Amino acid sequence: KWPIDETKRGRDLGDFIRKQVKVKFTLGQLSKQVDESECEKTCIALERLANDHYRKRYARIDFSATGLTAEQCKGVLSDDFLQLLTENEKGIVRRLF
User: Fold this and answer.
1) CA distance linking residue 30 with residue 7, whole number of Å
2) For the CA atoms of 52, 58, 62, 63, what is the dihedral angle to 10 degrees?
3) pLDDT for 27-61, tens place per residue?
4) Exposed site from 29, 53, 63, 64, fewest CB < 10 Å?
5) Predicted structure pTM score
6) % helix / strand / coil in the chain, to the nearest 5?
7) What's the pLDDT tens digit per position in 66-81?
8) Residue-level pLDDT at 62
9) Is 9:79 a contact under the CB 8 Å cutoff?
10) Inter-residue contact 68 to 62 (CB < 8 Å)
11) Which is nearest to 35 in space by CA: 26, 25, 45?
């Protein structure tokens, strides 16, 4: 249900959740070290996240403390932008030394 955000390879929440489920349930229903009540709490919490429960309950304004829109913030957190920052940072270091 949780789509993979291709702009955040290796840092995507949906991908992280799927990997954790695989780790916890490597044997499927035969997994023995599963605390049923803890599993139920986690499942409910993930359903709330996936169904935008908190997003709907606590609606945000259209901008952030930085003054950027949600779409601009998403762009700043993308892999492409982080790679650009890394390349620019290397340029600054080269200029100093």
Assistant:
1) 35
2) -110
3) 666 666 667 788 889 889 988 988 889 888 987 76
4) 29
5) 0.50
6) 65, 0, 35
7) 788 878 888 888 888 8
8) 66
9) yes
10) no
11) 25
Task: Please state, in angstroms and rounded to a whole number, the distance separating the CA atoms of residues 38 and 41.
Answer: 5
Predicted confidence at residue 31, as pLDDT, reads 60
Residue 37 CB-density burial (10 A; 0-12 exposed, 13-18 middle, 19+ buried): exposed
Do 68 and 81 form a contact (C-beta atoms < 8 A)? no
pLDDT for position 22: 82
**Do 37 and 46 touch, CB atoms closer than 8 A?**
no
Name every residue whose Cβ is closer than 8 Å to that of residue 1 and which is 6 or more positions away in sequence: 50
Alpha-carbon Rg of the chain, whole angstroms?
A: 19
